[in-house]
Specification:
Layout (H helix, E strand, L loop, with lengths): L9 H18 L11 H30 L4 H14 L3 H6 L4 H9 L7 H23 L1
Length: about 140
């Protein structure tokens, strides 16, 4: 059996990285390293900021992976079923016309692998956080 290598989607990688930068920018409001009294405190603040970004990115990757593996299929099916009863939409009616087992089979064909771009971006932020943390104790 031949293994297929998954190519990196560069646009997705950039989106995850920009998301991490935006999260870091939001964290700057709570921990402003530019107002630190010395270099040691600034390094601690930068470590905190990038660690928060990496944890949130890892969480987003986990949610994306679990959603693609079918964790939320039951919730999605029930919400689509309720909305289809009140608001007629032909594309939703096709998906839920059968049973839940039929819906699961349709969704099984749409499964995606783990988003390695998100893992890569989160790991970069984690490495920056660890580097700042090590530099904090070296200063």
């Amino acid at each position: 059996m031949e293994k297929r290598r998954r190519k990196i989607n560069w646009i997705t990688l950039v989106v995850y990285f920009i998301t991490g930068v935006i999260i870091s920018a939001l964290a700057l409001f709570f921990r402003n390293p530019f107002t630190a009294e010395n270099t040691k405190d600034a390094l601690r603040y930068w470590s905190d900021i990038t660690l928060v970004s990496s944890i949130i990115l890892y969480g987003l990757v986990f949610l994306s992976f679990s959603a693609h593996q079918g964790t939320f299929d039951g919730l999605t099916y029930s919400l689509k079923y309720v909305f289809a009863k009140f608001i007629p939409m032909p594309h939703i009616d096709e998906e839920i016309s059968g049973t839940y087992a039929d819906y699961k089979e349709i969704r099984k064909g749409k499964r995606k692998p783990i988003p390695i771009e998100g893992l890569f971006s989160a790991t970069i932020f984690l490495i920056i956080a660890i580097s700042c943390f090590i530099a904090y104790y070296m200063v």
